[in-house]
Amino acid sequence: MRILLLCLLLLVAKAGWADSPAARVNGVDIGLLRLERYFSEYLQAQGRAVTSIRNPTLYKRLRSQALDELIDKELLWQEAQRRGIAISDEQVSAQLGEVEAAFSSPALFERRLAEAGFDRAAYADYLHRELAAQQVYAQLSAVAEPTQAEVEAFYQANQERLQGAQNQSDNSSVIREQGLVLARASLISQLQAQSRQAARQRLRESAKVEIAD
To answer: Element (H or E) spanning 30, and its range?
Structure first.
């Protein structure tokens, strides 16, 4: 999260951009300016730059993916409000302090905020929304710890792949023990990914989302 926040702060807002809606989520607008900022952040997280994309089809696809993520963020924020998720001023201040500490001086931090179209209060509000959305996302996508039988079954089904990721050993019991540890971690990761996808899908199905032409 910290890296993404820093990327966001390094963006220069396009002065004079008419902030008409790129999408509307349950009646709440996602403006073009917000999308353009997030699109640059989205590309930087992938090691890309806007100027490096020459293919119009690829540009359109990546921009659409960034908009999809923004829609999910808005849905999560709205769900957090419905659930009464409470983010304290102390949590926001701590996160703000972490971001600010990454800059060489308070003056540089303030300048980056201004360049990105924020003042300190607006950025604190952005952090509040992000923290609330992350919290509700964790709640919606929580998964139960897999049973030993489920781990064993996953290990048997993926034994060759898992053994390829293990440290080499001549001891078969060590190989199996390591494999089961990897199997548990891999299975939990898979279940969490499936749960996150299902959570986003449930929010989308119950929402009214309109994409601007």
So the answer is: strand 28-31
